[in-house]
Design goal:
By secondary structure, this protein is α/β, with parallel strands linked by helices. The chain folds into two domains: about 180 residues, Rossmann fold (3-Layer(aba) Sandwich), CATH 3.40.50; about 160 residues, Rossmann fold, CATH 3.40.50. Helix content is about 45%, strand content about 15%. The strands form two sheets. Strands 3-2-1-4-5-6-7 form a seven-stranded parallel sheet, with helices on both faces. Strand 1, helix 1 and strand 2 form a beta-alpha-beta unit. The C terminus is likely disordered.
């Protein structure tokens, strides 16, 4: 099977890129896999990519690249939804290059790794390949305008892959996608290359983009209670984003400048998780939990908000970590304090978290679920094609001119690859 992943920027440093590379590498053990990066800003990828995975780009934005001077690069995209955050780099040039790729691809399955790219796949892929959307965020994170754009394109897909069962249910209820297979498959998180955390330190670690939805303000307020009772404990928050000045001011207001540290970006994060004793994710209901999954693979017990689209499915309360109500600094602080004072519980929960995360996020297992889904969709399509041809052949034998015309049309439609799901 030939599988092609269409990515925003395969040369970026984010954890979604690392997860995509891990999935592609695992799939490439048995299949022909390529990653097509719409944009390229640097000479080499920031993350390791298996040699058997082909990598190419569509638009070169490196310094002195000819694409930077292309007039189409300055005109806005007419396909990529403007309502999707991060739509800025998309242009008439990316429209043209993506369309050329989708018209010519020899892939059996083409996978879009963000909503805007999935819209391109739904609208522009030639007849034949499976059209697959892979959602990096939950439906609750998409604004109204983006949802409207997706409703106009997603019905053309063969399948939509979400990260959690809860999000799959949300898409089934809220997006009206008849005939589209909606499947929940967790992200691929590779095994850490370092020894797991031993839980003996005094660091609580959090990571994610510093935006309002991640609720790091709630975490900082919660940690004030921890610092008051356990002054030997510290909190490190990794990531960058627009909320950094406000969070820095909050740390100063609460007098936590010796206890809470904004560390900036760290790539990869696993070395920082391994130094910690607790992982914490205070995010609201739009969370996806990718950082938390990596922390659990590193053997850290998780303290997180009970959100249905992420920690609610990833963390078993009292077994692999603790779940608390969203937006509640007192509850979050109490959970952190309880584990800070109980080394045996941290060790027990951390070991269970590591085992559970390995079973859920192992790239080989995740790749197997993707391959099974694609193979089933292709088999159903081929079965539907054979059925259409058989029905059309029988009608041609027994019918008159009108029947012959109608069934001839059916045969031509079947040969063109009419999608059946």
């Amino acid at each position: 099977m030939h599988i092609s992943f269409l990515m925003h920027h395969a040369y970026g440093t984010g954890e979604p890129v690392r997860a995509a590379f891990a999935l592609a590498g695992a799939l490439a053990e048995r299949h022909d896999v390529e990653i097509v990066s719409v944009l390229r800003h640097r000479d080499a990828p920031a993350h390791d990519l298996a040699p058997r995975v082909a990598l190419r780009h569509l638009v070169d934005l490196r310094e002195h690249a000819a694409d930077r001077a292309d007039p189409a690069h300055t005109r806005p995209s007419r396909v990529f939804p403007a309502a999707e955050p991060g739509s800025g780099p998309y242009s008439a040039l990316t429209d043209r290059r993506i369309a050329q790729y989708l018209r010519r691809t020899a892939a059996d399955a083409v996978v879009g790794t963000r909503p805007g790219l999935t819209v391109h796949i739904a609208r522009q892929t030639r007849r034949g390949p499976l059209r697959i959307g892979q959602e990096p965020l939950c439906l609750a994170a998409h604004g109204r305008e983006l949802r409207l754009a997706l409703r106009g394109a997603y019905p053309r897909l063969d399948a939509l892959i979400t990260g959690t069962e809860a999000d799959a249910r949300a898409y089934r209820r809220g997006m009206r996608l008849p005939g589209v297979r909606i499947a929940a498959v967790p992200p691929a998180v590779p095994a850490p290359r370092l020894a797991p955390a031993d839980g003996s330190g005094r660091w609580t670690v959090a990571a994610g983009r510093l935006v309002r939805e991640r609720r790091f303000d709630v975490l900082i307020r919660a940690f004030a209670a921890v610092a008051a009772e356990r002054p030997d404990w510290r909190l490190r928050i990794y990531g960058g984003g627009p909320e950094r000045p406000a969070l820095r001011d909050l740390i100063g207001q609460l007098g936590l400048y010796n206890h809470v540290f904004l560390m900036g970006r760290a790539r990869p994060m696993e070395a920082e998780w391994a130094k910690g004793a607790l992982a914490v994710d205070p995010a609201g209901p739009e969370a996806t939990g990718t950082s938390l999954a990596e922390a659990m693979r590193c053997g850290l017990p998780a303290v997180a908000t009970d959100c249905p689209y992420a920690a609610g499915e990833m963390v078993e309360d009292g077994v692999t970590g603790r779940l608390v109500p969203p937006g509640d600094p007192a509850a979050l602080g109490a959970a952190l304090l309880a584990l800070a004072g109980d080394g045996a519980a941290r060790a027990r929960l951390g070991a269970a978290a590591r085992a559970a995360a390995a079973a859920r996020f192992d790239p080989a297992a995740v790749a197997g679920r993707h391959a099974d889904l694609f193979a089933d969709l292709l088999a159903r399509r081929r079965g539907g094609l054979r059925g259409s041809l058989h029905h059309a052949r029988g009608a041609l034998i027994g019918g008159g001119y009108a029947t012959k015309y109608a069934t001839g049309h059916a045969v031509r439609a079947a040969v063109r690859g009419v999608r059946t799901v």
